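Dear U.,

Please find below the material for section 3 of the report. The protein was modelled together with 2-acetamido-2-deoxy-beta-D-glucopyranose; I have listed the sequence and SMILES used, followed by the predicted complex structure.
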Amino acid sequence: MRFNSALLAAAAAAGTALAQRPTNTSICDYYTMALLKENNATNQYTLLTLLVNTAIIGNYTQPNVGVSVPGILNPNGMYNNTKVNLVPYFDGGLASTNEGGSMGVAKNFLDGGGAAPLMKNMPADDMTSNQ
Ligand SMILES: *[C@@H]1O[C@H](CO)[C@@H](O)[C@H](O)[C@H]1NC(C)=O
Ligand SMILES: *[C@@H]1O[C@H](CO)[C@@H](O)[C@H](O)[C@H]1NC(C)=O
Ligand SMILES: *[C@@H]1O[C@H](CO)[C@@H](O)[C@H](O)[C@H]1NC(C)=O
Ligand SMILES: *[C@@H]1O[C@H](CO)[C@@H](O)[C@H](O)[C@H]1NC(C)=O
């Protein structure tokens, strides 16, 4: 199966459409058809997996469609010419969860393999991690 999710993510992020979406077709129906050809429940689920994973780890699908999506877990992320690294909020590097009542608690949400399983369209390498 060939994916085009970087293009989808870029289009979604920029609020633009690849082509004109008919007003009587939902966004999900339209992009599932446009990118995965057949519009059914499996492909709609796959589309959302690709969209979420691309937002998190950046463009990763093949073939590459020439649209770069940095991803929020990119340690070298840039915003307005300023380096932004959000990874410590997700890997336990900061006491940034609110599970400790009056104190933040550090928690590693990337303990199920991090980006590697996402690149295989899996949520984690195991069933028991925080990830
Ligand atoms: C949307 O509208 C077009 C033109 O009116 C029509 O041909 C098409 O069947 C409609 N699609 C759906 C999903 O209702
Ligand atoms: C949806 O279509 C894909 C092929 O594009 C197929 O592999 C999958 O089994 C279909 N799923 C359902 C629920 O029909
Ligand atoms: C993401 O897209 C950019 C621009 O096309 C490309 O240079 C880069 O190799 C892609 N990254 C991955 C991991 O596919
Ligand atoms: C980008 O940085 C410039 C210079 O610091 C600032 O004036 C501007 O408001 C910033 N723009 C955004 C969208 O943060």
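For the text of the report, you could mention the following: The chain has two domains: 1-66, 72-124.

Regards,
Y.
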